[in-house]
Specification:
By secondary structure, this protein is α/β, with parallel strands linked by helices. 38% of the residues lie in helices and 20% in strands. The chain has 10 helices and 12 strands. The strands form 2 sheets. It has a 6-stranded mixed β-sheet. A 6-stranded parallel β-sheet has the order 9-8-7-10-11-12, sandwiched between helices. Helix 5 links the parallel strand 7 and strand 8. The longest helix is centred in the C-terminal third of the chain and has 17 residues.
């Protein structure tokens, strides 16, 4: 009999709301499945991965999005391009990896009518930041990549230039940023609960942006977003991305399709679960 259990693997998972989102999605699609949180310790990760093949599928979050890849039977093209997998489908042929963070990211931008175009500032050089960088470069954006230490931005820029040799990519440091950008993308946890007063970029940079997307979903509106919105920018936070990446996972796992209104309703429900306002 086919296993009906899905899990999220990561560490820590204490603040995760993913199980609530997936529970609602399974209810909506009328499919009876369990979705549980499974925190894995780094020391026992290699052993624990063996048990995952018997599941129906699983999601992957920090710090395993890259580490899971060698254990997978296949990795789809986009996930392979970003070097990050967040969704795995298990079947008789093995474990198959995908990246649905990108679906959530692009949906979140389009819902807020934010164009991925022009002069873009990307904060961070981790998994989500690199996915956002690739999507921006695919659309011909020029990119300033800023991290806390210049060397990490520089390494990320060099890695990207191998895939996009003619791209306009400038490494920088978050604290010393100046100027204005058509779009700011935050792929760092700076401003996330409990450090809700933090902002990854100087206030003047936040206030002069045309639009801002922040991958953080707790708080619902970060200080970065609040500053940009008050100055008239289009803004979008990470909750919409989180919900829509889960929707894309259900399409892969079960072939489910959902109405936009139903998903927006889930976004509203999940927003109520997040209480850490700035
Ligand atoms: P990651 O791979 O660990 O990358 C984090 C990046 O942020 C690194 O470049 C890191 O640089 C930098 N950073 C860490 N702490 C910082 C701080 N206090 N100030 C400035 N930079 C800092 O993590 P990730 O998976 O890309 O996730 C990044 C963020 O996106 C997290 O907040 C996560 O919750 C969020 N996220 C949201 C969704 C969604 O669906 N909404 C999905 C995935 C992730 P250093 O090397 O200097 O530490």
């Amino acid at each position: 009999m086919q296993n009906k259990e899905y899990v999220l693997i990561g560490n820590p998972l204490i603040h995760s709301i993913s199980h609530e989102i997936h529970k609602r999605l399974f209810e909506l699609s009328g499919i009876s499945r369990n979705y549980n949180l499974r925190q894995l310790d780094p020391e026992t990760f290699n052993e624990a991965v063996k048990d995952l093949a018997s599941l129906a599928g699983f999601n992957v979050t920090i710090p395993y999005k890259q580490k899971i890849i060698p254990f997978l039977t296949t990795v789809d093209e986009r996930a392979s391009h970003y070097g990050a997998v967040n969704t795995v489908k298990c079947d008789g042929t093995g474990m198959h990896g995908y990246n649905t963070d990108v679906d959530g990211f692009l949906k979140a931008l389009s819902q807020a009518e934010i164009q991925l175009t022009g002069n873009v500032l990307l904060c961070g050089a981790g998994g989500v930041a690199r996915m956002m960088a690739s999507e921006a470069l695919d659309r011909g954006c020029s990119l300033v990549i800023a991290t806390r230490t210049f060397s990490k931005a520089s390494k990320c820029a060099n890695d990207l230039l191998k895939h996009y040799p003619t791209a306009n990519i400038t490494p920088s440091t978050l604290n010393y940023l100046s100027g204005s950008f058509d779009l700011i993308l935050n792929g760092t946890p700076c401003g996330m609960h409990p450090n809700v007063q933090d902002c990854p970029v100087p206030a003047a940079v936040a206030r002069s942006a045309g639009a801002v997307f922040d991958a953080i979903y707790n708080p619902y509106e970060t200080r970065l977003l609040a500053r940009a919105r008050a100055a008239g920018a289009k803004v979008q936070g990470g909750l919409t991305m989180l919900v829509w990446q889960a929707v894309a996972a259900h399409e892969i796992w079960e072939g489910s399709h959902f109405e936009k209104n139903d998903i927006e309703h889930i976004c509203d429900e999940m927003r109520k679960l997040i209480k850490n306002d700035i």
